[in-house]
Design a protein that fits this description.
Two copies of one chain form a homodimer.
Chain A: H1 19-26, H2 30-38, E1 46-47, E2 53-54, H3 59-71, H4 76-87, H5 94-131, H6 136-144
Antiparallel strand pairs in A: 1-2
Helix pairs in contact in A: 5-6
The structure holds a DNA duplex.
Chain lengths: ~160, ~160
DNA sequence: CTTGACTCTGTATTCGACTACAGGGTTTAC
DNA sequence: GTAAACCCTGTAGTCGAATACAGAGTCAAG
């Protein structure tokens, strides 16, 4: 354990990281880190005598893996299973392979969809720029959908929560 | 009011649709339709004397537009703005164009990311099948994260959402 | 010794996009 | 004429992935 004096070995290569540091380096946010731990994605780190989490730098790689997997469309739950499975010894477990394979299929499917609509959207935008008119799927459809009078936009955009 | 007798013109081309029918044809679900209406994506339809929603078939196109836009990654809120904007007269509004253009950029970004990781994932899976070992990013990282050191992390990737 | 930055646990809240349900009215088929 | 199938409003719940907050302990600097 962390015998009170090992703190002073604060060289940058081997230092145990406190949660704030991990958050800073991984870009993941303290609360999220604790949440990951609760959810079984991280396993519990050592603690200092006072109860502070004390991470080994390896956690950063793990977090990186998690982020990558997320981008690929894995849910935290699936990621958890992959990690747990690996850790449990039976490395290339069938179940995990299934997940990966399925996700791959879904991914391809989604990629195809996205490429298609990207083309449509791009085309519409181009024409829009040219002619000042929206065309094709993007707005032909809006136009097509006439709204039976009434007050259209109803109320103000009170709850307009734009982010990102 | 719909003059009690015009209901009987139930020819298939002009019939006003009740919500269940719209749900069936659009594949969108009654509750979701009402939710869209509440959210300002649909505007209120006429009602029969008894208060039932009575949709014009054009709503189907609108719903189709909404679905497409969603697949492209637009939020309901953005979709709403696009529609409202169009309806408000100033057709090819700058704001909407901005949304579309930005979304397009994001989409391309995301496509690139996805293709990259798809390659990695595919490769890992192939090797896995071959050698029974997970390699590369997919599991090297899991293995690495046993609890040993390493280094950095670049900036976070944009928040991407998986849906479906 | 005190301040301020940091951390702890535990519970609650957010957000988007729905979905479910309670407690009614209406239409339609037999 | 009655039961099933539909529709209404309004409110509440779900799900994934976090965030936020309350109330308390800990640590390094001045």
């Amino acid at each position: 354990m962390a015998l009170r004096s090992n703190q002073q070995v604060t060289a940058e290569s081997r230092s145990p990281l406190k949660i704030g540091e991990v958050a800073k380096r991984s870009g993941i946010g303290i609360e999220a880190l604790r949440f990951y731990e609760r959810s079984g994605l991280l396993g519990q780190p050592c603690r200092t005598q006072s109860g502070y989490r004390s991470y080994d730098a390896a956690v950063l790689q793990r977090l990186d893996f998690i982020k990558r997997a997320q981008v690929l469309g894995f849910s935290l739950d699936e990621i958890k299973r992959i990690i747990a499975d690996k850790q449990a010894g039976h490395s290339p477990c069938l179940e995990v392979r299934e997940i990966v394979r399925n996700r791959l299929e879904e991914l391809d499917e989604r990629l195809k969809e996205m490429r298609l609509y990207r083309r449509e959207l791009g085309a519409a935008l181009a024409q829009w720029d040219e002619t000042g008119e929206l065309a094709g799927h993007v707005c032909g459809l809006i136009e097509g959908a006439q709204i039976e009078h009434s007050n259209p936009t109803s109320r103000g955009l009170s709850k307009n929560k734009r982010r990102k």
